[in-house]
Each structure stands twice: as structure tokens, then as C-alpha cells.
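All the exercises in this workshop are built on plain-text protein records. The record below serves as our worked example for the rest of this section.
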Amino acid sequence: MPIKTSLARARQRTAYKGKPAATPQSNSRSSATFRSIQEDEKVKEGFTSPLVSSTAHEDQEFQMIPDLFTSRPPIRDALSTASSIVQDYTVDECLPFLAAELDNVRYNQHGVPRLDRERHIKFLRKNLEKLPSRFVALDASRPWVLYWCLNGLSLLGADVSSYRDDLVETARSMQNTTGGFGGGFGHESHLACTYAVVLALAVVGGDAAFEVIDRRALWRWLCALKQPDGGFRMAIGGEVDIRGAYCAAVLITLLNLPHDLSPDAPARAADRSNLFDGLADYVRRCQTFEGGISAQPAGEAHGAYAFCALGCLAIIGAPHRTFHRFVLPDFPLYLDVPRLISWLSSRQYAPEGGYSGRTNKLVDGCYSHWVGCCWPLIEASLAGPSSLMFDVNKTKNIDIHNLYDREGLIRYILCCAQDQSKRGGMRDKPSKTSDAYHTCYVLSGLSSAQHVTRLLASEGQGMMTHSEYDVSPHHGNPQVYAEEDRVNATDPVYFIPEGKRKEIMSYFLSKPGF
């Protein structure tokens, strides 16, 4: 298995060599052995190497593509395993895309294709229409399909207000009188589905969208989900994990729900009186020996859970207080940030440039969001509010906005995770099919890589303080994409457009109580 190190550190040792990138040589063992391990690796049938051409593009002249993105890892473990073989196969399929060797694709001078914005918009709009019968497998994920498509369209700059009326009626059909939203009509309420519906309603905006939410019933349901250990169940009788911590924190704050627990809440058995009591400590117990975050204490670290942990703590308090740095006296610390940074850095691979979600797993475009969007909050925890940020950079000589390789991630997204066919949309990797899920989260990761997030201010000194962020364009050196390929900025904690986050918060702040 290739030994994976931080791409950001590796890039410091990589120069623009002043010569064309060599055509990557396939590992013959990888192709021959791949099919025999499909079942063990749970690789879908039909996973084949994309057909690419090594024909030189005589009509296009590129500046030199860094060798880091066109060469195999220089250090390799000689032991061949099922995982190392699939990893070799993944590198093989990505290298031609990264080396700008595809026919019928127009590249810029950096060997990066344009963002096919209009085709991706068309793809997402199509996913909001009547879907073929095979999509019945996603029947319980209807709220997610709505959020993925609407948020993806917003990132691309498309107007989504025309979907408001239909979304309101759809959301109403999925809301239960006992509180929360299910995956479809008649489905039991689930915290993840409720999170997705509320975010979708926030994205379209407007009073009609907000008024469909039964806040009183939702509050009582959240109180029933609150557990004595500080965490939240995902559904009545369901599992307790860190997804619940983040989803609940988002819902409580977006909708301005009361923090006090109802008298019959299960958590009152452990002397909990508040929806946020013990929540940060639950997150703390989910950090693993690797430095990453698991779904539950003593579990395996995963990129999506890392984002849920950081997002939850950033809602509970300002990142520079709740994470690790600039700690007030007697103020609790909930994460070992240096170890988390090490684990997150190890998720970015070379030559691919993208992120994996777990140790010894393959890159996947969706982790452009789940891992890539951890960095803005990490940066905020290191820098503190803007009044402190410049002192940190000056005295510690820390370039906090380049803790990972932005260029590498952008190259993976635009070269490998973008479906260049007529279909459009974004995908896991070149051999996979685009879908709404990957389109939303790949675009979210692209937005994060194209912008810089700064913590402007944090009201108060204790817990549950509201933080304001500035999200502004990042200009790389070199900037490997055209300015018109920059997608919209998004809120670093709630991941909906910042204006939409402010709109829904302002609406419910004007409606205290029920």
C-alpha cells in the first residue's frame, strides 16, 4: 500500500519541473487482480477503468503540471493487499485525468478543465423532476435529495425560489404531528431527515417555507431524543451518534427553539435540564487515538464525523474557545486539535489530490466537503477573532489558510470528480456515476477551497455565543481555475448560503416561544 503522507507537506518538496507531465504507466498487477477482490472490497459490479486517450493535445499548450499530481507516490509498502491493489487501480484511473490527457476536453493553461456550470445546473434540476422507478431505493431519502439539489443549485448561482411552493407541500406531507420529519409520507421522524428538510426550506427561503415547520412539536421530539450521556438519538429507539449532536445543534439554533428540556425528557434522569447539557463532552469522547472523530465513543474515525464534531462545537461556542487555542481560564477543552489536524492532513492523497474518509480507504469526491470543510473551522480555532488573527500570523509565522493543499483538491474536483459527459453532475471518482449527493458535496468542497473563512467576532465569553464569519475569495498562486469558475460562498457551520442562514435565523428570532 502506498504510504500516505500529508499532501500539503509533500507539495513543499514538489516543484514545477519545467517539463511536460509524463504519461502515467499502469500497474499491470492492479488491473489483473482487481476483479478477484471486488466482493471483498465491496466494489460495485461494472467498476471499470475509464477509456482515455494518451494522444497528445497538440492544439493546447499547458504550463507545467506539478509532478506531485502526475506521478506515483515515491514511497511504497512492498506488501500487496486487497486494499493496496484497489488503491493502485484508483491511482491508475485518476492519473490520465490529472495529466490532462482526455480527448474532447478543453483544458486551461494549468491542465485543468472548466467548471461546466450550466450542465451541472441542468443535472440537478432534472433530479428535482419525476424520477425513474429505480429511484424507489431512495424513497426514504427524499429530504436529502431535495437538500442536495437545492443547495447544489445555490452554490452554482441558480435561482431556486421557483421550487418554494412545491417544497412546502412536500415538506408538509413528511412532517409528523409528534414532531420532526420522516423520509417520506408516513415515515417515522428521523433527525437526519429533519435536518435536511429544514435546510432545504432555508435555501428556498420565504415566510411560507418557514411557517410549515411545527416548532413546538419539533422541540418536544428533540427533548425525547436527548440522552442522559449528553448525546441525541437519531430517532425514537434509534442509535445515538455524533450526527445527532450536529443535526440537533443546527435545528435548535436555526429555529430558535427553547433550550430547556421538557419535564418528561429521558435526559432529566441524569440531572440534565438543557438540550445542550453534556453535548460538548459527548463530542469530546468521540475523538479517537488517531486524532479523528468516530460516530460514537471507541469507534473508528471518519471524515464526516469530524465535520459533525467541529460543526457542533462551533455552534456551542466560538471555535477558538471550544476547540483548543486561546483558552479562557477554567474554560473546558473538547478536542486535541494538533492530533485532529494530523489525521485530517493524512486524508489528502497524492497524486489524486482528493480526500479519503477513513484510514487506508480510497479518495471520494464527497469528502471534499466532509473533510475539506473541516479546515475553515480549524483555521478559526487557530486564529481566533479577527482582532487576534494578524497577531497569530505575525508572531507564530503560521499560514493558517494553507493547512491543506487547496490546489490539489481543486484539481481533483475539476479533473476527476466532474462528469464531463452530457450527463453532467459531480461524482465520487472517474469510474463512478454522478449523482445529486456527490454533486452537492463536491461543489461544497470546491466552495471551501475557493474561499477563505475568518472569524470576525464572537458575542460574549461563555458557551452558546453567536459567532460571525467573513467568507471571502481565496486567490491561489497559481490560481489554476478561471474566476468565472468560482462557485458561491457558503456558511462554514450550517452549509447553506450565508444570506439564507441569516434570513431563517432572523425570522425565528422575531418569534420567541411558540
In short: The radius of gyration is 23 Å.
